[in-house]
Write a structure and sequence with these properties.
- The protein contains four helices and three strands; from the N terminus they run H-E-E-H-E-H-H.
- Strand 1 and strand 2 (48-53) form a beta hairpin.
- The mean pLDDT is 90.
- It has helices at residues 2-6, 59-69, 81-84, 90-93, and strands at 43-45, 48-53, 74-79.
- The chain has one domain (22-105).
- It is globular.
- The chain has 105 residues and is of the alpha+beta class.
- The chain is 23% helix and 14% strand.
- It has a three-stranded mixed beta sheet.
- 15% of the residues are buried.
Length: 105
Amino acid sequence: MQEQLAGFTTTEGQNYRLLELPCPQARVNRDSERLPATYANFLALNGAVLVPTYSDPADLTALKIIEAAFPHRKIIPVDCCPLIEQYGSLHCLTMQLPKGVLPWG
């Protein structure tokens, strides 16, 4: 995948800057199913980046890499251990909500 990504360019023909994130240790649920723990599930906001953490030794490394990628934004770690139990993580949590979930929608 790294080779494939390195071959991608912007519409202007520029190479993308690729940053390698570590992988947290594999986590499984009670049924031994692997859970989707990944640092790539971060969420960039105005002025900040929410970064999933998993009480894992690689958390600090991932935070530093993402901080380098977004030097002008506040990096905010978020414990996502409960979220991956639902087969998603931070970015997934912020996506679409079914009609009727919110009082105005």
